[in-house]
Write the structure tokens for this entry.
Amino acid sequence: MAECRSMTVARSTSRETRTHFKVITYMLESGTKLQMDSVPMATACLIYHRFFKECLLENHDPYLIASSSIYLAAKVCEQQIRLRDILNVCYRTLHTDRPPLEINDEYWELRESLANCELLMLRVLKFQIAFELPHKYLLHYLVSLKDWLSPSVWADTPIAKTAWALLRDSYHSDLCLRVKPQHLAVTVLYFSLQCNGVGVPFNDDADKQWWQVFCEDIVESKIQSIIVELINMYAMEMNV
Amino acid sequence: MDPQIMDGLDFPFCDEVVKYEKLAKIGQGTFGEVFKAKHRKNKQIVALKKVLMENEKEGFPITALREIRILQLLKHENVVNLNEICRTKANQFNRYKGSIYLVFEFCEHDLAGLLSNHNVKFSLGEIKEVMRQLLNALYYIHCNKVLHRDMKAANILITKNGVLKLADFGLARAFSISKASGSNRYTNRVVTLWYRPPELLLGERNYGPLIDLWGAGCILAEMWTRSPIMQGNTEQHQLTLITHLCGSISTEVWPDVDKLELYSKLELPKGQKRKVKERLKAYVRDQYALDLIDKLLSLDPAQRLDSDAALNHDFFWMDPMPSSLAKMLSTHNMSMFEYLAPPRRRYQQGGAQPPAQQQQQRAVASNDAAFDRVF
């Protein structure tokens, strides 16, 4: 009996996880169309995941929450986007088969629900809107590492590009809630070096592993376990 | 969603403001009213600042959001502490739109209130202590890449123990050093007119921390004059007053001023000599104070002292050294806020308030429309 229930829980969790994966894809697509920078975009995803850590998926329309997250994140990150633009872009992204939104009752209702939803989210977040993201750490790590690698390796392999892409994709799951920003930054960099087949020079002879130089409290097994989560997340793409 | 559905819902994330009992209105902030209030259970005294949300077409006001975010990031003894955020229930009386309150630690006085009460006398050491704490606050917020953008005596709170707290971050914002690729384009419609530096009046949009230091200079002088030193009615008038005190604005004293948009469009009195020290020495007897005011009221922001340099000025390191206000304040057992004070003797009336979009009306405005300079 107990086993039976835990299985149901497992299945429903994965359905939820898949839904969130799909909604984040929608967010990233809308955000790209709105020309959002990477930090507001990541903040939007973080807000979205924070919200669903507190609230049940079955009680809220995830697409409305996602759109409001974009709106709120843009404000918080000083890259304010007009409500009208968010509404039009999100509507188009969500309903590719319908004509663009006209200014009619539906427009005003959607607009008001977005504004109301923003306030709801602020409350759920307990107005905690000062976020720390992995981006600033990754930037510093990359700058330091660039000077340590040979210029030709740096020029020929897309280490930075891969790391940024991995970081961006990681928001499809709620890793950002469970992993310290520094740890996520180290992990995507580690994974990127691995994917590109690049080793850090003299790492084997050094007293400290390169990641310990950047972040003292991380161990390799932790990096590995985060990478496993990332790989599982990519595997999910086939099933959504 | 039908708002009435909300009635029965429990909201665990944000407490209701009714847990505080409002005692008195003590001010009018940049975006709403401020009340003194008491926690009904633990009796803690706080200040409640209401966020005005009526007629908001773009959701939760960005200014309030900035204030909340900035105060969450800034934790310093000389910056006001934000305790929590509360809400009111939505009901039929507020058209199902609840309000949001910012809950602050309570401070007994504000500097404008203290200065308007002539029974409050500051010794030189106490003036130094006020200024030292103010510059400490500015040093801290500027290090953390935040501009206050509304320096004025009413926004400087002082507890009964003499601890200064910089308050009202309703116009504050984060800033970045502009890159070669492009300059910042911040609004120049900020800072109460009387404390607004010349570069903003001339249309500068790529500004930085030094705009707050001009205000600090005005406030330092005000510690002796007891009312704002330059009370202009319009931007043009304010520039004229600045010129009368700080000398004519020209490329000789301020090399890049001709690049500012309004430099050629506004009327700038020519041939005025700088007389900051001469004009103020009747009030300010301390030569170090005069020198510091002079260096803070530099027309060219590039030549103005930053908060670090100001803290290193001899003013703070010569006898009498900065000394606590606690003893002097303990002789006054009434809260002193500008909002509650009778109009300061030579105050300009509310019409002189700046045209900036969210400027507060002075609640106790005198009706004396005639312009009067302080010295």
Observations:
- Chain A has two domains: 2-124, 135-239.
- Residues 153 and 198 of chain A are 8 Å apart (CA to CA).
